[in-house]
Amino acid sequence: MKSFFKNVLANIVAIVILCFVFFFFFVVMIAFGSMSNKESVKVKKNSVLTINLKTDIIDSPTDEQQSIFDINSKSTNILIYDAIEAIQKAKTDDNIKGISIEVDNLNAGITHIDDLRSAIEDFKKTGKFVYAYGNAVSQASYYLGSVADQYYLNPAGGIELKGLSTEVTFFKDFAEKYGIGIEVIRHGKFKSAVEPFLRNDISPENQEQLSTLLNDIWGNTSSKIAASRKINTEDFRMVVDSLYGMIPDLTVKYKLADKLIQKTEYDNIIRKKLALKDKDKLNKIALHKYADSFKNKDSDNERVAILYASGSINSGDEYNQIYSEKYIKYIKELQEDKKVKAVVLRINSPGGSANASDEILFELQQLKKKKPLIVSFGDYAASGGYYIAMAADKIYSEPNTLTGSIGVFGVLPYFKDIANKNGVRSDIVATNANSAYYSSLHGLTPYGVNLMTRSVEGTYKRFVHFVTQNRNKTFEQVDNVGGGRVWSGTRAKEIGLVDELGSLQDAVKFAAQKANLKSYKVSSYPKEVSAFEQIFSNMNEDDISAKVIKNKIGQANYEILQQLTNKKLKSEVKMEMPYKINIK
């Protein structure tokens, strides 16, 4: 018995020591990582600015924050604002002779790629070269790479150029089969976020809006690729329809690529362009490192602040995504900061909680009373994401931004049938007539349905009211383009939902102009937190479980699961867009 306790104690001590060693090693790694990030970067002569596989283009400091589950990731994040600034800086940098695009799978939003292409097009006007190389190239990567003067492909490679499509999954039969009831209340025939729970096929309204949206985005995208590659419209459509990009020889025949070569041969082409000798090293500098080489230091200059609102909108006080309590703090800080003379609200959100969106809108309206507030849309500014923009002095959208979705819905699942089939039932004892207007077993009472309908309708009217004020339209005019419908940024400009088509840089420049600033610094909010803070601030059981599930079933399926299981999401009236569109 004594030896048993000795062994147990020895194992406990070993585990404690191991945990301590792991923790110490982990902290040291993060410390060294932070130190290395702060090292100054020197740009060598005859350098080539490189956009490669190790750089992810993100919209906000809160996007894709590192966690304990992806600490070994080799990719590096760079804000789209910083990426554009870096390319603009490279135009006049004598040490940068050209740009090399070396990306097979680009992790960036559609509007980010649009802005990168525009910046590179502008860079080309200097006479400096832009070359691109690919192996197995995704559609998004080719969209960016096609802007190059010359596009080279591996002889065994291919380009997945196929156009856009979307697939809508329906759960009505699944829910009925397994005894899951779903109460759905919505306003707007285009509010398709709830269609998967109501139907077994796509509605004509959703078919119409998706077709229009996809064709708008693909029209913008395909025309730019065809123009860059000097392919006429008919030939380009034939090439895409036939998937000829996947056959290496045909990529050259149909002008998608200029030559099939190995990567070493590609590097030699760049070396020859730079007139390097055999002994000379080819100096490539990654986009994120180049951006770090000239970032503004803190100064006493007057500032334009970019407040990033990225992700779904929720109630609470967490760091990632848009949590109302946290964002109200940011807004109040910017309101009181005397150095901040104007604010650009960068929205990249499909919406979320109606209540949280309303709280944020109110605080933005207070901010607007003190200083200019300009809004810039990224990939998404829909539902609650569009709602919070209604405090703006001016709204900039990208042509391919998913915009609008002025609509409201509520989803409340209940499990009476599946419970009864498995021998589970319940009786309710209550003090008042509607104490149990909703329960997870019985669903909504008739009065509860009426109550939720009134709530949804009231929220929709409030939504439209703020749009009428900001966009100078009547209720009928907004309702005609609302109803939950999603528009491209191009069409949103045509129907008056936004003021201008332009980038985040355009919005910042206008904000500075409105604040009468000649010299200013651009600051980002929220501030990026360290990897150490990110990891240990999210170590609770729920977050770990959520991360594991999300990794197993994928982000899209996880979001659907949340609608059925997350108490916060079930109990709230929602302003949310039902889908995302990625060029892949």
Automatic annotation (TrEMBL):
<dbReference type="InterPro" id="IPR004634">
    <property type="entry name" value="Pept_S49_pIV"/>
</dbReference>
<feature type="transmembrane region" description="Helical">
    <location>
        <begin position="12"/>
        <end position="35"/>
    </location>
</feature>
<dbReference type="GO" id="GO:0008233">
    <property type="term" value="F:peptidase activity"/>
</dbReference>
<feature type="domain" description="Peptidase S49">
    <location>
        <begin position="123"/>
        <end position="261"/>
    </location>
</feature>
<keyword id="KW-0812">Transmembrane</keyword>
<dbReference type="InterPro" id="IPR029045">
    <property type="entry name" value="ClpP/crotonase-like_dom_sf"/>
</dbReference>
<keyword id="KW-1133">Transmembrane helix</keyword>
<keyword id="KW-0720">Serine protease</keyword>
<keyword id="KW-0645">Protease</keyword>
<feature type="domain" description="Peptidase S49">
    <location>
        <begin position="366"/>
        <end position="518"/>
    </location>
</feature>
<dbReference type="InterPro" id="IPR004635">
    <property type="entry name" value="Pept_S49_SppA"/>
</dbReference>
<keyword id="KW-0472">Membrane</keyword>
<dbReference type="InterPro" id="IPR002142">
    <property type="entry name" value="Peptidase_S49"/>
</dbReference>
<protein>
    <submittedName>
        <fullName>Protease-4</fullName>
    </submittedName>
</protein>
<comment type="similarity">
    <text>Belongs to the peptidase S49 family.</text>
</comment>
<dbReference type="InterPro" id="IPR047272">
    <property type="entry name" value="S49_SppA_C"/>
</dbReference>
<dbReference type="GO" id="GO:0006508">
    <property type="term" value="P:proteolysis"/>
</dbReference>
<dbReference type="InterPro" id="IPR047217">
    <property type="entry name" value="S49_SppA_67K_type_N"/>
</dbReference>
<keyword id="KW-0378">Hydrolase</keyword>
<dbReference type="Pfam" id="PF01343">
    <property type="entry name" value="Peptidase_S49"/>
</dbReference>
